[in-house]
Design brief:
The chain has 315 residues and is an all-alpha fold. Among the domains are: 126 residues, Actin-binding Protein, T-fimbrin, domain 1 (Orthogonal Bundle), CATH 1.10.418.10; 48 residues. The chain is built from 14 helices and no strands. Helix 2 runs parallel beside helix 3, helix 2 runs parallel beside helix 5 and helix 13 packs antiparallel against helix 14. The N and C termini lie far apart (83 Å). This is Microtubule-associated protein RP/EB family member 1C.
């Protein structure tokens, strides 16, 4: 389907974290507070079951997956469903199971885009709690999901009452001490931002982390090229050496062994050239008829020079 090949600039990847969480909790009757809680793969499996009822063997899905092995088993179930439905989406399992917020957010954004394209955004006839009963840990998940559903309402009502009483106190204080308030304005409440501001701060931190990682990646490339060009032993830097540094991705650098640097090649060829120069000097003395003892002393001096000894400066 067209939704399986959406690009990174598609509007699906600009859906906010709060909207994604609200969609997951409404569709699957869950109480997720972070996108990272979907890293086990069980949520993605049930979202596919909601989009294609009966296509996912829910008895193989593990909602209590805590280690990487159990998480990978969930993603294997999801990959089998993708293959059955001929969905060509590549699942980056190694990144998702690490629980990084940005990777899981992007995958859930894609899941929402796909489910909306299949069902038109409406899956009202899907009974998520009943479908989870056959899954491992599904009953415990249903119990945990039912507990927080009453807690936010209670806290919200308490918060409204506190704000109402606080507003009444402020209103009464305005009539009594208007000159004092004009001289010194009352500070804003500590919780005036609310969860929306906290969510925006989290998203900005994730964006900063992503940009810093990309900056460090390209800076390391520039640093490698700078070291290569500043080495005095390399007279001519080949274009291939620079291209190999520029076009090597982070995954290629981890999988492939490092290529032989031109600096190392030059440092290995230098002793060979100096030894050849020494042999040539001794052969020239043979042609001039120099005695063997003199040649031996000259050979010793050349050995000292090749070693870089400071004693040769006094000769």
């Amino acid at each position: 389907m067209a939704a399986t090949n959406i690009g990174m600039m598609d509007g699906a990847y600009f859906v906010g974290r709060n909207e994604i969480l609200a969609w997951i909790n409404t569709t699957l009757q869950l109480g997720l507070s972070k996108v990272e809680e979907a890293a086990s793969g069980a949520v993605a499996c049930q979202l596919m079951d909601a989009a294609h009822p009966g296509a996912v063997p829910m008895h193989k899905v593990n909602f209590d997956a805590k280690n990487e092995y159990d998480m990978i088993q969930n993603y294997k179930v999801l990959q089998d469903v993708f293959n059955k439905l001929k969905i060509t989406k590549h699942i980056e399992v190694n990144k998702l199971i690490k629980g990084r917020p940005l990777d899981n957010l992007e995958f859930m954004q894609w899941m929402k885009r796909y489910c909306d394209s299949v069902s038109g955004g409406f899956m009202s006839n899907y009974n998520a709690s009943e479908r989870r009963e056959s899954s491992k840990g599904g009953k415990d998940t249903n119990r945990r999901a039912s507990v927080p559903s009453h807690t936010p309402a209670k806290s919200a009502s308490t918060g409204h009452k506190a704000q109402a009483s606080h507003g009444a106190k402020r209103a009464s204080g305005q009539t009594a001490s208007a000159p004092q308030r004009s001289a010194k304005p009352s500070p804003a409440p500590a919780n005036s931002g609310g969860p929306a501001y906290d969510e925006q701060i989290t998203e900005l931190k994730l964006l900063v982390d992503s940009l810093e990682k990309e900056r460090d990646f390209y800076f390391s490339k520039l640093r490698d090229i700078e070291i290569l060009c500043q080495n005095p032993e390399v007279e001519h830097v080949s274009v291939q050496a620079i291209q190999s540094i520029l076009y090597t991705s982070e995954e290629d650098a981890q999988q492939q062994p490092p290529a032989l640097s031109p600096i190392m090649e030059a440092s290995e060829e230098r002793p060979k050239q100096e030894m050849a120069h020494k042999r040539k000097s001794i052969s020239d003395l043979d042609e001039c008829g120099v005695s063997s003892s003199s040649r031996q002393r000259l050979s010793d001096i050349l050995d000292v020079q090749l070693c870089g000894s400071p004693l040769t400066s006094f000769s």
